[in-house]
Write a structure and sequence with these properties.
The termini are far apart. With about 190 residues, the chain is an alpha+beta fold. Helix 1 links the parallel strand 1 and strand 2.
Length: about 190
């Protein structure tokens, strides 16, 4: 089994698509997925920037990450799907409370996330750590102990054999010590 650390941000639709693809193929390609929050707010605006409307959701996921990787694997898809496919307003506390009531998540986390700005320094610290390793945005993938690779940015999310072929290509490029970047206009 290969460990793949996935850097994501709940505000990013590209993260959502890449993580859907990875969850779909993980068992078929023998991947153990580890989810790590990588704050785009910090990366794009730096310390002291005005708070993003998505910051409370980042705090919830950060709290979940500290508690249990399995919890993040349940929460992030729930929140991202609501945001990007259901158009839920995750900047509203009552909406997030309602979403998280279903899987039995401690609802005090929601209140803590809206009120505990002290978590932002820890979230920023985690982003700084990934940036120092070469992380430049989300989604980013870390295969084993390697440096992060930004991407892939995909739309639509590939399915079936096409999804598996994409993994073969991405994994191959990530393992090539001479490969750095491949990009085209969106």
């Amino acid at each position: 089994m290969h460990r793949l650390t996935v850097l994501y941000d709940p505000a990013c639709p590209w993260s959502w698509r890449a993580t859907r693809w990875l969850r779909d193929i993980a068992s078929a390609v023998d991947l153990e997925l580890a989810w790590r929050l990588y704050s785009l707010s910090y990366i794009n605006h730096g310390e002291g920037a005005p708070a993003s409307p998505m910051q409370p959701v980042r705090r919830i996921l950060f709290l979940a990450e500290r508690k249990s990787p399995d919890l993040v694997a349940r929460l992030y898809p729930l929140l991202a799907e609501a945001r990007f496919e259901g158009r839920a307003r995750l900047d509203r506390r009552e909406v997030v409370r309602e979403l998280l009531a279903d899987p039995g998540i401690a609802l005090e986390w929601v209140d803590q996330a809206w009120e505990n700005e002290a978590l932002d320094k820890e979230i920023d610290g985690q982003a700084i750590g990934f940036a120092l390793r070469g992380g430049i945005g989300v989604p980013s993938l870390i295969l084993g102990q390697a440096d992060p690779f930004y991407g892939p940015l995909i739309d639509p999310v590939p399915q079936g054999q096409e999804a598996l072929r994409l993994w073969d290509h991405v994994q191959g490029l990530m393992k090539a010590p001479y490969f750095y970047e491949l990009k085209r206009q969106r």
